[in-house]
Design a protein that fits this description.
Layout: E1 5-7, H1 9-14, E2 26-36, E3 41-47, E4 57-59, H2 62-75, E5 88-92, E6 95-101, E7 104-107, H3 120-124, E8 137-145, H4 148-154, E9 161-169, E10 177-183, E11 187-195, H5 196-201, H6 208-220
Parallel strand pairs: 2-9
Antiparallel strand pairs: 1-4, 2-3, 2-4, 5-6, 6-7, 8-11, 9-10, 10-11
Family: Belongs to the ETF-QO/FixC family.
Protein name: Protein FixC
Domain FAD dependent oxidoreductase: 64-143
Length: 221
């Protein structure tokens, strides 16, 4: 899951000016962080004019951005086979020569593992160690529809400008985690994350996330 913010410095290095055609939502110009109690909040608010690439960051929605990225890769010669799970790596000696998906084997000169932080394929090669649960977090996110005009009014933004807002403190009830809010073109991404180690020892703690989101919604929206 992504909260919905893309820092452009890396993608700008290989696709200069990508934002002119990519389906970005808004350029982040306002940064806020709030420290919450049960009944009050202290907020730091920083605003600046839209920075120039590659210092820019954008709010994005992956259901729009991912297909666009796939199309750019296909134009460069890549082939996508969606909906297929890679079960194992094909090896010849110390060299990986392809992947196995069910009964099918796909040969490749180069295999790039991009199966996330919990890379089972990487572990099969002893390339990715089993990390502590303290290094991971699990999040929930809600998408709230608002008109562009209403978003710009409530968050004091100009057209196409966006806000990134982080939350810490109550009402997390001592849980290790935090909240986030990102303004899209005609919606707001609102979410909260909790450390994975917390959930292993206190599995009911995750149920409080919805209460937390409701509290932030009342405060921010």
């Amino acid at each position: 899951m992504t909260g919905g913010r893309l820092y452009a410095h890396s993608i700008e290095s290989i696709m200069p000016g990508f934002a002119t055609s990519a389906p970005i939502e808004r350029v982040v110009t306002r940064e806020k962080i709030s420290f919450l109690t049960e009944e009050s909040a202290v907020t730091l608010d920083f605003h600046r004019a839209p920075p120039t690439p590659p210092l820019t960051s954008y709010t994005v929605l992956r259901n729009k951005l991912d297909p666009w990225l796939m199309a750019q890769a296909e134009q460069a010669g890549a082939q996508f086979i969606p909906g297929v799970r890679v079960d194992a790596l094909v090896r010849e000696g110390n060299r990986v020569t392809g992947v196995q998906a069910g009964d099918d084997i796909l040969d490749a000169n180069i295999v790039i593992l991009a199966d996330g932080v919990n890379s089972m394929l990487g572990r099969s090669l002893d390339m990715v160690p089993v990390s502590s649960a303290h290094h991971y977090a699990v999040g929930v996110k809600e998408l709230i529809g608002l008109s562009p005009a209403l978003i710009e009014e409530r968050f004091n933004l100009a057209s196409h400008e966006g806000a990134a807002w982080l939350f810490a403190g109550a009402p997390s009830n001592g849980l290790m985690g935090g909240g986030f809010l990102y303004t899209n073109r005609d919606s707001v991404s609102l979410g909260w994350y909790v450390a994975w180690a917390t959930l292993l020892t206190r599995p009911k703690a995750y149920r409080k996330c919805w209460k937390i989101l409701n509290s932030i919604r009342r405060y921010a929206l």
